[in-house]
Fold each of these.
Amino acid sequence: MSSAATRASSFFARIARHEVHPCRSSLMSAARLPIVSWSATTAAAFRVEFSSKSVLGARGFHVSRPGLRDRPPSSWGDMIPQPPRPSSSETGPLTKIILRPQYKRFGQSPPGGPGSSNRGRVPIWLDRRYQIMGGVITVGGGAYYVTHLETVPVTGRRRFMDVSPQQEEMMAKEAYKQVMAQFGNHIVPSNHPYTQYVKRVASRIIKAAGLGHLDWEFHVVQSEEKNAFVLPGGKVFVFTGILPIAKNEDGLATVLGHEIAHQLARHSAEKLSFAKLTMLFGVIIAVVFDPSWTMQRAIMEFGMMLPFSRKCETEADQIGLLLVAQACFDPREAVHMWTRMASQEKGPSLAFLNTHPASKDRIKKLEEWMPKAMDTYRSSDCETTNEWADLFNRSDLAQW
């Protein structure tokens, strides 16, 4: 072996024993080194290439690591110490950016660190622990869901409900305090003609719905807002802005029948129950798919909550129409009332962004349900009731 090869072999043996650093060796002071070849063992561990230009013009040299197929079991290449990282005093702004710590997710090793793998982490659905956990949650949650199913009156729809009437009543009391604090100063007296008018129409629908056992209260809010709602427990609020659109008792019965239908179907409690399912679904999305918070909220809002709200509103329209007919109000007025409501709406109606269906969609549904509502109206004993209704309709209180 030539003297150059002998010196190179000795040098790399010292490197393997960590006795010298390749970038600080006196070997770099050599003016020129040829391309060196040596024994098969050393050649399998390293490939070193020198040129006069690279040696003379640089402060170090490059040691290329061998391929995996010709790499010895001892893996000498991994034993070569790496050059120290520059200290903060020696680094410039660009170097600090390049060498800054890498982002590390919770429970995940950084690339190249302990526990990392070239193939990536195991998908969560293939992890045995998560499979067991998912099975327990699925069985337990499924049993809880099935045991809390019930049937909605009138429509017969099956739904999940885990809020008791007592819990609903407690929450309704707090909601009633908040509404009174907000609109209390704008509520007309109980002996006002508007309040008496609302009470008269609502009482007939309440009787038809079989909800006379509740402690009903009727409030008319002096406001241009076109709205009405009923809180659980029988607290009715009607805004004066909707009275001209209702126009007569049959039109007001359409409004109140819809709101009382919410009470009969317990939609408020159902929404609270459905919110729990939505939260669970949101957790599953976050664990399995790991979307951003904005994406998760969008999926839950537009994919679950808003469609569910529109479904409840549509069901209240259907139940309310039958209650109106059962209470001997003309259900055909519902189509005219919603036509007047649609004429008051401004701008495009994007139903998928709203909690309520568009007025034109509600009209189509009402027309589909009208034959059954008219059968209910004709089969009801409305002769005596309609005589009294005609007297009220001819009065000034029932017309705007």
Amino acid sequence: MKTFKLTIISLLCFFISNINFAQNNKQKSSLKKQFRYTNPITRDSAISMRDHFIIKESDTWYCVGTSNPVWEGHNPGVRLLVSKDLLNWKQHSFLIDAKKLPPNTPYNGRFWAPEIHKIKGKFYMTVNSGEVTKEDPKGMATHNVWLFSSDKITGPYKLLNGPITPQYNNDATLFEDEDGQVYFYCSGNGLFQAKIDLKTGKLTTPLAKFLDKKQPGWPDWMVGGIEGPFVIKKEGTYFMFFSTWTRGYEVALLKSKSPFGPWELASPDPIFGTRKKQYREQMAREGGYENLFFTDTEDPYQETGHNALFIGPDGNLWNSCHYFMYEKRPYPYSQSFQPWELTPQMGIEPVKYEDGMFYITGPTWTEQIIKY
């Protein structure tokens, strides 16, 4: 009887130890992956861009953005970067190579803030540009939105339509709703919206302005300017990210129960970004908002904005935008600058959705470890 009891106890101990071992292994395997990153991700003047837009296709991440020179034309075109690990990026090609465009091409200018959206199995690229001439060296008089399409993310892209709107507009983005309807959003002295038919590339409703930088009753951190809309739907609510350069470069968030609004602030303050009092002081004086009261953020950046969301290494939503080092950054940050630090570079951060609200980590500048 005693031997039988010992045998039973031994078996129970063995069984319990096996359960614990299995549970420990399961816990270890569930957290066996980690992703380490340090912003800025790119540190190379040769592939410097603003307004980074990242899209994942198969096992590869692709990125387009605004190449240098930014403020005056011509810039080289729409540069495509590629990466297998989201950390090491190289140039793949120019989706639009300015040097190869025919003379008098009406979009030969600055190629601002391009985006690529995969909709119904095709790739649609929005490009914001105008024609650079001797009389208009920045191409501002004809700056507008142009829509291109391709069967492959790497191209070739063919012009579908443009200019899409009857006025100056910029920072165009697309959003496909669950019913298949595609919506067109853009900036240009405010934020605008319309429906678009991707077969023709034409708007099917009038372009309507729904938010001004000086909208009555809205916060003063918008008065410098608002731009860069990006729309996503979550749990029946439409969210629109947009940027403002009033206090530096920040990202704010709107929400609505309809893709056409009415839109309201999801948060009374920007949810991400950097603030620097001494940044763009002349612009603040000229705009009459130099007396706004705010405190600087404790980071080494002067710009972290014009964002978009993409699928990251953990299968969740991540944020992309450009990170631009602050030329007047204080101690303890290094007072010497590497050449790449004088140009905007890529920055990424994980995005969290909780209790009906989106949150973006950072902006960070030290190593981050994401376990999944």
